[in-house]
Amino acid sequence: MKTLAIIRREYLERVRSKGFIISTVLIPVMMSLVLLIPMLTVDKVDAERTVGVVDPSGVHFETLRTILDERERPRIVLIPLESAPGAREDAIAEMTDRIRDEDLDAGLAIAPDFIESRQATFYSKSVSAGIVREMIAPALNRVLRENRFAEAGVPDSLHAYLSAWTDWTTLSVSEEGETTSRDNDAVFAVAFTLIMILYMMVLVYGQQTLTGVIEEKSSRVVEVILSSVPASRLMSGKILGIGAAGLTQVAIWTAAIVALSTRGINVGGMSIDASFLTPLMLASFVIFFVLGFMLFSTLYAGVGALCNTVQESQQFATPIAMFVIIPMMLLTLVMMAPSGTVATILSLVPFFTPILMFMRVCLETPPVWQILLSWALMVATIYLLMRAAGKLFRVGILMHGAAPSWGTLVKVLRQGD
Amino acid sequence: MLSLRNVGKCYGEVEAVVDVSLDIPRGAIYGFLGPNGAGKTTTIRSIMNIVPPDEGEILFDGLPLDRERLDRVGYLPEERGLYRKMQCVDQLAFLAELKSVPRREGRALAEQWLERLELGDWKDKKVDALSKGMQQKVQFAATFLFSPDLVILDEPFSGLDPLNIELLRDIIRAENERGCTIIFSTHMLAEAEQLCDSICLIEGGRKILDGSLEEVREDFPLRSVKVVYSDGAAPPKDLADVTQSKPDDDGWRLTLREGADLDALLDRLRAQGSLSLFSANRPSLQEIFLTAVRRRRAEAGEEVAS
Question: Could B100 and A2 be called an inter-chain contact, meaning their C-beta atoms sit closer than 8 Å?
């Protein structure tokens, strides 16, 4: 019951604080900004491109324009350049000048005998025009093919049959064998958002354990508490209370996302779609948050007990934070081959599991035994860390005065109970 | 009520407490005296199981003082501390809950105690908003709130004004009459003399003496008298049993040899002239304290020398 009292106190103190209310509102705003900024820059990539076309035949130009207009983005505006018979070279020279002056984004010169020779030349100043070339190339291929079909006298019905496109469906195969159709980009965006939240929550709430312990220590309230409960219970109550506050915040956000998506509200042109949040993803998010938070806050609580001020704690807190940052840097490695050996091994390292294994769960379903193993390894690590941190806590919590060093940390850990 | 049996505690090489045995009688106001750094706080922390002792045992009514029995013991640490961001009532209810008082009951008790300590108007204020003296009173309330059987107060009056000292002293006496045994650690000997009925004296981590005030005083016989002649004259130099005489305010203080005959001394002084004051007070705790500490330090010095 005493532990419950400590949990309740820690929980209420955090949930009632201004910081909690502000961050509950602010973090989603920041997250959407993080997602919106790339979208805005994508818009820039999508901006209109002007392409000058030298077409001696005068007919391919129109066909090309019709084909390109079928696509919406990026919008390519074709500008015909007059080329009198025999003056093709002049037209090309004029076009390259205009490209140099950035009047045109790119240029296309179609050979006079295009249907026979299949020759066309693409002119551009910057490499970024590659996207334009990739748009124009298939369109010009169609021009070529349709002309050759017409030349060979292929009837319309056969023409349609021959020029049909592949009808694609994208399915992802899960471990259970069922196949679901889903938009991989959207899944990735959701997964990435969740991982950012996970990362922030573990760091922010882990650090709160650190500052909470130091505050208790510097305000000297800890001695009264320890006259009523053992240090280990104070530590576990504290960790559980702060973790519960973190989960509350996650619950508020989830509820908000679900509420917004069922009403189909758009935020910044981006429709929120919670259907990508599968129950498996949500459940594992909660589990990975709980385990990750427990692991890191135990570390933070242990070193917090040794320190007198937050400044003093930084020498220990920074290396701990590295264990959260490193998996973020390894994220791309896992994304490229979620089931590869490297990803599998890395995601089983307890300090990396919350972020890397969660990423794998989002991208595809790893074998169940791997998920269970990663949890078991984390629980075992948490148990060992709790014992070590408990020792640091018992010894350190009443220590005042000299700033601790790595030496004192090792010394305390080596001392018997 | 509370017994310490050969309690010892070392911090690395430093012996903070050595072989301390004490018996604190039920219903006593027990003074825990000693100079700064004598090992008082370490002993108290050992009792409260905050720093478990390396050696010896601590018995509460003859049984080991475990967590459950600690719920009957209140503790006011020397280093005061409360959660700064918590309201007074919540704070007290929380601290009471840690002593196994149900929350609802704890809140009611908290309000009663804040009222009793003249802090009724502050009950919904955060601790941050309170003056230091008020915070100390809140903490004092936390110590007594759950009607403990034993309370340990480490320097309870430091930093308080005389009015508040009086208020707290009355509460300590009232709680003692209710049946609460009180251990009272201090180096303010006058305080201890006013409140305590038994004391122990700790120095260098060791117990030097303990017992009721009466017993302790008997072990330290009268050491000096004060003499004032109506004409302000100095006492004669060649007095038997007097080892030293020096001016003291308006008269003279005569230090006595052990086993001095007071009647003979008074007769001799009166033969000299008309006395306006002959005062033979019992030794004050201050004198006992100083004598005992010096004696022990001298002994320790001899031990080191030999």
Answer: yes
Q: Which of B192, B82, B193 is nearest to B141 (CA)?
A: B82
Q: What is the pLDDT of residues B89-144, one digit of tens each?
A: 999 999 999 999 999 999 999 999 999 999 989 989 999 899 988 999 999 999 99
Nearest Cβ partner for A221 among B71, B81, B99: B81
Distance from CA of B201 to the nearest CA of A (A): 24
Residue spans of the domains in chain A: they are 2-36+183-414, 46-161
pLDDT digits (tens, 9 = 90+) for B240-276: 888 888 888 888 888 888 778 888 888 888 888 888 8
State the smallest CA–CA distance between residue A75 and chain B in angstroms: 59
In 3D space, the residue among A71, A232, A33, A354 whose CA is nearest the CA of residue B52 turns out to be A232
Domains held by chain B: number: 2
- What is the residue range of B163's domain? 2-217
Q: Chain B contact for A226, CB < 8 A?
A: yes
B-interface mutation test, from A214, A221, A233, A394, most B Cβ less than 10 A away: A221
Determine the topology of domain A46-161 in CATH: D-Maltodextrin-Binding Protein; domain 2 (3.40.190)
Q: Which chain B residue lies closest to A18 (C-alpha atoms)?
A: B85
Interface pTM, i.e. ipTM: 0.81
> CA dist B9 to B28, B30, B39, B41, Å?
26, 22, 9, 12
User: Looking at chain B, which residue has its C-alpha nearest residue A220?
Assistant: B81
A402 and B CB contact within 8 Å:
no
Q: Domain check: are B12 and B45 in the same one?
A: yes
- Residues B139 and B186 occupy one common structural domain: yes
Q: Which of B41, B44, B50 to mutate to test the interface with A (most CBs of A within 10 A)?
A: B50
The structure's pTM equals: 0.74
Q: A369 CA to chain B: closest CA distance, Å?
A: 42
The residue to which tokens 């319309």 are assigned: A156
Say if residues A276 and A43 touch (Cβ distance below 8 Å): no
Please tell me the distance from the alpha carbon of residue B251 to that of residue B227, in angstroms, as a whole number: 6
Q: How much is the CA Rg of chain A, to the nearest whole Å? A: 31
Residue B287 belongs to a domain: no
Q: Tell me if B178 is assigned to some domain.
A: yes
> Beta strands B181-186 and A49-54: pairing type?
unpaired
